[in-house]
Amino acid sequence: LLRPLVEQPPVEAVGSITISRGVAHWPRHGRDPLQVLKCADEQLYAAKDGGRNRVMLAPPPDEQPERVAS
């Protein structure tokens, strides 16, 4: 719900704003909190590289990332 609310009204002097997010789940993506944050950060950059304004969920080990929303 947050992405559409942020995206809709253009901001004067800036233009439109979008939100990209990377999501990882503890303990599925690591037992160490720093490992989970690193995994979420990697998915954030995957969301940005994929066109921005999307959410990417970290995959289980040995699987591809899942695009949650565009």
Attribute tags:
three-stranded mixed beta sheet; alpha+beta; 14% strand
Could you please describe the fold and organization of this structure?
The model has no long low-confidence stretch (mean pLDDT 84). Strands 1-2-3 form a 3-stranded mixed β-sheet. The longest helix is centred in the middle third of the chain and has 17 residues, at 33-49. It contains 2 helices and 3 strands; from the N terminus they run αβαββ. It is of the alpha+beta class and 70 residues long.
Distance between the termini: 12 Å
Count every helix, treating DSSP H or I runs of 4 or more residues as helices: 2
- Output mean pLDDT: 84
What is the global morphology? elongated
Task: Annotate the secondary structure layout.
Blueprint: H1 2-7, E1 21-23, H2 33-49, E2 55-57, E3 66-69
Parallel strand pairs: 1-2
Antiparallel strand pairs: 2-3
Summarize the structure.
The protein is of the alpha+beta class. It has helices at about 1-5, 35-50; strands at about 20-25, 55, 65-70.
